[in-house]
Design brief:
80% of the residues lie in helices and 0% in strands. The protein contains 16 helices and no strands. Helix 12 packs antiparallel against helix 13 (357-372) and helix 15 packs antiparallel against helix 16 (425-449).
């Protein structure tokens, strides 16, 4: 009898906690229903704000974004040196594209794997692990890649290491930034990706000017080490968190049975096909255009890399402006407009390789704007049609599908380029970019099929 009192009090407390949890779940469900009445299944955020007394200051955010620029230094290295290694290594266009594809395939797996691991082991741990792995593999690529086999293997390992500085970092920032500032912070994060790609092309161009493709590899390979140290220091004050998951979560409900989610995932896949293919081949295309106008091979490669870097800076501007515009005009109209514009640009630009630089360069800049501008809109839109408890998993599968399509695109472009080579540069480049335009058509069709906002 002496033990009866404590046991009963414990049972009552457990009963009270269970009732309180049930009431909280009902309140959350009512809030979800209210959001659903406005056309949004996810009316909140990716993760619940859990403050530990630290704040995401402007300086700390700048350090995180700058670190990502350094970490992405190898992303565009091979694309920048394709005109040189195809000659020195005796590669076909398809073989050169396969090096880029090895990176992108592995990066797709990395994004998925790190997103899954972040749910189980914590986002911050995955960001730190990815940053350190990226530093090590990038250095190995810079010093060890010397032919097709070594470059394909080493570049693939770089891709496997990089995924944790994307989705897990989005999850971490969702925890640390209040909702009123979160859109602005995510805009900076997405823009830092484009800035990183631009810096990668600029660093590669500097390396080419100093000592050819080998110097470009080494210089690019050393930069991620600085990025890893800066990122780890910037994130040091924030806690390691693992958010609990409900046993009732059924992922297939948010992918197979959610119409808008399916359309947005398919649209993102088409968008990735067009965008990553453009990233991989636009430096070589611009270099070929300059070479046809009489520029030397090395000079043309450097000019193409620098101009391709400008395209990514334009893309950063597109991410800011189109994301903000979609808040005012709606997600669907912006996705339709950008999908149509991207497809038209893909079907046109390749046929204009002989066009004067005063025509070709502005067209390439506009091409970059419309193909990258829908990235933040697609991400925002899917966060609004997927229930909060499912969003991380849906983004992981979306990333896998999108990056897998992006991995195939450079290879497919190269195959078309090789097959049509006998028809001359106008036809071969025209058909190559038209292949990318098919992804734009898919993105446009999916955007048109989305439900109109009520």
């Amino acid at each position: 009898m002496a033990l009866a009192g404590p046991i009963n009090r414990t049972d009552c407390r457990q009963e009270y906690l269970a009732r309180e949890a049930q009431q909280q779940a009902q309140r959350e469900e009512r809030r979800g229903e209210e959001a659903g009445e406005n056309g949004l299944l996810h009316g909140g955020t990716i993760a619940r704000k859990m403050s530990n007394g630290q704040s995401m200051t402007a300086g700390r955010l700048f350090a995180i974004c700058l670190a990502r620029v350094f970490l992405f230094a190898t992303f565009m290295t091979v694309a920048a040196v394709i005109p040189l290694i195809t000659l020195e290594w005796g590669l076909s266009a398809a073989a050169a594209g396969a090096i880029v594809s090895s990176f992108t395939f592995c990066y797709a797996l990395s994004v998925f794997g790190y997103a899954w691991a972040a749910d189980h082991f914590g986002a911050k741990r995955m960001v730190v692990a990815s940053a350190l792995a990226a530093a090590a593999t990038s250095a190995a690529f810079g010093f060890l890649a010397h032919d097709w086999w070594s470059a394909t293997l080493a570049y693939g390992l770089v891709g496997l290491a990089q995924g944790g500085v994307y989705t897990p970092l989005v999850m971490l920032l969702s925890d640390e930034v209040e909702p009123a500032r979160r859109g602005k912070v995510m805009g900076w994060l997405i823009a830092s990706t484009s800035a990183g790609y631009a810096a990668s092309l600029g660093i590669a161009a500097l390396g080419i000017a100093i000592g050819g493709w080998k110097a470009a590899f080494v210089l690019s390979g050393l930069m991620p080490a600085a990025g890893a140290l800066l990122l780890i220091a910037a994130l040091a004050p924030f806690a390691h968190r693992v958010h609990p998951r409900s046993r009732e979560v059924r992922l297939r409900d948010e992918i197979a049975r959610n119409r808008d989610s399916r359309l947005l995932i398919a649209g993102y896949t088409g968008h990735s096909w067009e965008l990553v293919g453009m990233w991989a081949w636009i430096p070589a295309f611009l270099a070929a255009g300059f070479a046809l106008k009489g520029a030397a091979a090395t000079g043309a490669a450097v000019s193409g890399a620098y101009l391709a870097g400008m395209l990514h800076l334009v893309g950063a501007v597109a991410a800011f402006t189109m994301g903000r515009l979609s808040d005012r005009a709606g997600r669907r109209p912006i996705l339709v407009a950008l999908g149509a514009a991207g497809a038209i640009a893909s079907f046109v630009i390749g046929w204009l390789i002989h066009a004067p630089s005063i025509v070709l360069v502005p067209l390439a800049l506009a091409y970059a704007f419309v193909t990258l501008g829908d990235s933040p809109v697609l991400t925002t839109a899917i966060s609004e049609v997927v229930r909060p408890g499912y969003l991380g998993a849906v983004l992981a599968w979306r990333g896998l599908a999108g990056f897998a399509a992006g991995a195939i695109a450079p290879l497919g472009f190269g195959l078309v380029l090789d097959t049509a080579a006998g028809a001359g540069p106008v036809v071969s480049w025209g058909l190559g970019f038209a292949t990318l335009g098919l992804g734009g058509v898919v993105a446009l069709a999916c955007a048109l099929a989305l439900r109109r906002a009520r």
